[in-house]
Amino acid sequence: MSEQHPPGGMPPSPPQWMAMAPAPPGPRGRNGFAVASLILGILGICGFSLVLGLIFGIVALVQIGKSGQAGRGMAIAGIVLSVLWVGALTVGVIVLVKKTELLATTPTIVALQPGECYNTPAAYGLDATKVSCAEPHDGEAFATVPLKGYVAGEYPGEETLEAQAKAGCEAQRATVFGPGYTPPVEASVGVFYPDSKAWLAGKSAAVCTFQVTSDKQFTGPLRH
After folding, report:
1. Residues 152, 101: Cα–Cα separation, whole Å
2. Considering the domain boundaries, does residue 219 fall inside one?
3. Which of 87, 103, 119 marks a domain boundary?
């Protein structure tokens, strides 16, 4: 059977396919918030910049997830640096507060240096007020004795420190004043060593003093 053609004698044209439009080009370049986050993270110690570094890093990750821009690693680095700065500054503030608490009692006897004089409060203890040795006073520091612990970073205990301090102060008394020295008023050798708080804050020496034992005070510096 012969093939039939439509009027005009020409076979039908094959279907024509339209070319698909090319996809729009993807986003290029790094995300600006990611760059800013990294820079601010590096400068985090400047204060408020660490907060902005953290915020910009989070914004960058959200935008990069939607746009596909580069800079994800920079954003993550900015966030991590900001968090590390927050941790470091927090630790620094805690240490500063602890040291301030230790030195806030103007000063304690364990902070006195040889030749410095002090008055003690009515409730006798480590707290003292430093005064001029030319004024009436309750005691005078004449030496310090280094103390040793057994384990670094651990308080060795009062008995251990007291034994070291007493032996050291008695030796220093003879060295500083000479044998047979008698104070001008009734007094005895006072031995003051750091408590656990002071020890952990870095004070590792005992202070040797002459402390009055009656109502009469020293009125001038001791001879040494």
Report:
1. 23
2. no
3. 103
Each residue's pLDDT tens digit, 27-60? 557 888 888 888 887 876 566 677 788 888 888 8
Is residue 67 predicted with pLDDT exceeding 50?
Answer: yes
Which two three-digit tokens encode residue 219?
């009125």
- Together in a domain, 115 and 142: yes
Residue 145 has pLDDT above 50, yes or no: yes
Confidence of residue 15 (pLDDT cuts 50, 70, 90): low
Structural domain range at position 76: 71-103
**Same domain assignment for residues 119 and 143:** yes
Give the number of other Cβ atoms within 10 Å of residue 33's Cβ.
23
0.85 exceeded by the pTM? Answer: no
38 CB-contact burial (10 Å; exposed 0-12 / middle 13-18 / buried 19+):
buried
**Amino acid identity, position 221:** P
Q: Say which residues have a Cβ less than 8 Å from residue 36's Cβ, sequence separation at least 6.
A: 52, 53, 56, 60, 78
Give the distance from CA 10 to its chain's centroid: 93
Show the beta-strand stretches assigned E in the chain. 117-119, 129-131, 139-146, 187-192, 205-212
**Residue 47, helix vs strand vs coil:** coil
Per-residue pLDDT, averaged over 123-142, amounts to 83
**pLDDT of 100 strictly over 80:** no
Q: Does residue 2 fall inside a structural domain?
A: no
| 206 and 118 part of one domain | yes
